[in-house]
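Input sequence (204 aa), recorded before submission:
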Amino acid sequence: MPTPPPSALLLQLFRLQEAERARVGRALHNQVGQALSAIKMGAHLIQSEEDAAMRVEDLHEIIRASDETVAILRDLHATLHPPQLDAIGLDAALRAEIERRFEPGTVASRLDPLPQAPDAAIALIAFRIGQALMRPSGAMHVALDDDGDGFVLTLHDVTGEPADIALWQALAATVGGCLDGEGGTRWRLRLPYGPTSATPTDPA
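Predicted structure, token format:
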């Protein structure tokens, strides 16, 4: 597959980012906004409720709505930046992403801790590419393995090829890695643990 020119990849990246912003915006407006409005309405009702049993019921409803809102916000936060990536590592972040997005038992994974922690920027690239490639399927398999001076993330039995695959392949190449696919059902991402000569360095 020929690599698109840099201008096309930049436009693709821009569209991808805007689509994600739109998704988060809709979730904040439609889900979080409506939930907070319901909580506010419930609080006003309690102020004028004279029946003690009804007040307790209304309070329970406010607590339930609050819990649901917190869950939505945590899910959005995990989508934007997985907390496990910084605190625990790449394997934990990938495992949490699988648990968050897929029903139990639908994904077979072997995500053991790597012998060394990848550079933070490279770990984030690995997570984002893995996140993009994880698509609903009958029985997807995900594995993370050490490969000497690098590591390999493999996904088997993946349904369909992401429309923005050229962008992810170019992103892997910028840090000295590669992303190869076999018919859109098996993907192999190899990345170095640390920056290579392919990675721009900070002169400071």
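Checked by second reader. The helical segments are 6-48, 52-80, 83-87, 90-101, 120-133, 165-174.
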